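pinging the channel bc i need a second pair of eyes. not urgent but kinda urgent?? the chain im working w is below, pasted from the shared doc
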Amino acid sequence: MAGAKKLTDRFLIALFKRGKADFLPLSYLETEGKKVLAPGEADKLQAVLGEMAEKGIVSEQSGEYKLLTDPYS
């Protein structure tokens, strides 16, 4: 698939910035990610979010995630 992307923390940060709420549900991130990610990349979403939470980039509350800081800005 031409233009398909790999899942990265930069990609997720861009999704958070595009989202309209402070906390975004996993389903939103999966749906939006599947639109542009290469097949199978969205399956890694929870693992990448977990790594980002350990680094203090996002926080999780009741299955929803919030961007705390953007290390790339």
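so The mean pLDDT is 91. and The two ends are 30 Å apart (CA to CA). — does that match what u expected or am i reading it wrong
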